[in-house]
Amino acid sequence: MSTRIRMGAALAAGLALAASPALAHDPWEFASGGDDSNTSRLSIGTGSVQVHDLDQTGTGNDVDWIGVPTLARHSYEARVSNTGVNFDFGACPGCAQLERVSSAGAILTEDIATVNEGTGITLEPYDRSIRWIASSNTLSEFVRVTGGQGVTEDANHVYTLRFWDTTYSIPRWNNSGAQSTVILVTNLTQAAVTVTIHFYSSTGALLTSNTVSVAQNGLSVLNTSSLAPLAGQSGHAHVVHTAGYGGLTGKAVSLEPTTGFTFDTAMTPIEQ
């Protein structure tokens, strides 16, 4: 190919690029389908970390759609941090937004501050978290991050997205024979949270569920022998909640009245 032909091809390619809408420059923009709409094929797995930007070069506000696959009766947290972007602290609709949305864009869960929910005068409220309990298996829900209004964001406006399955496991509870089990759950967070314990048989059948609200720094004590479906039963349990990753501690204590022995079983998070 002659030099003139090569130069012509390069010029044509450059003109074609110039005529196309400019997109933000983080690598996720160039995944199959991009990440700018509900046609995004980008997803994040539990325990994973992604770094995005809100560069709006050549367009209006950048909008990132990241799929969050979930399992029924599990709980999750998506958290944005490591950012200089001014996210909505609860009273700033023009600030950048973090939301959990359906494929149609309907808001399913609003975000909260990781610490110090407040006025935005301090920096802490800009680190944001979405915490929810999944009601079904789904591949069609997203974390949506929208750039702020009134500011031109560029490739330096970055944020880190983390995603966790926050479900805890209790490997053993027992209400058969002479034993009975008490479950203790402590809330380590700054606000009241919802906690649901799903009780399963050893074969995986759901026997019953129990939901409580646990106050900030509060303790919930559940005597499982008070739940009629668990009489004479044993098995394991899953604990789901809105406390976020690491937001709870707890254990199951099985009591043996005839001997006075107790058997502790720690509530453990899913390794990710």
Tell me about this structure.
The protein has one helix at residues 3-19, and strands spanning 48-53, 63-67, 75-81, 97-102, 107-110, 112-113, 128-133, 141-146, 158-165, 168-174, 180-187, 193-201, 206-214, 219-223, 234-241, 248-256, 261-266, 268-269. The protein has a five-stranded antiparallel β-sheet with strand order 1-9-3-7-6, with no helix packed on it. Strands 13-12-15-10-18 form a five-stranded antiparallel β-sheet, with no helix packed on it. Strands 2-8-4-5 form a four-stranded antiparallel β-sheet, with no helix packed on it. It has one helix and 18 strands. With 272 residues, it is mainly β. The protein is elongated and about 75 Å long. Strand 12 (193-201) and strand 13 form a beta hairpin. 6% of the residues lie in helices and 42% in strands. It has two domains: 22-165, Sandwich (Jelly Rolls), CATH 2.60.120.380; 168-269, Hypothetical Protein Tm1070, Chain: A, CATH 2.60.290.
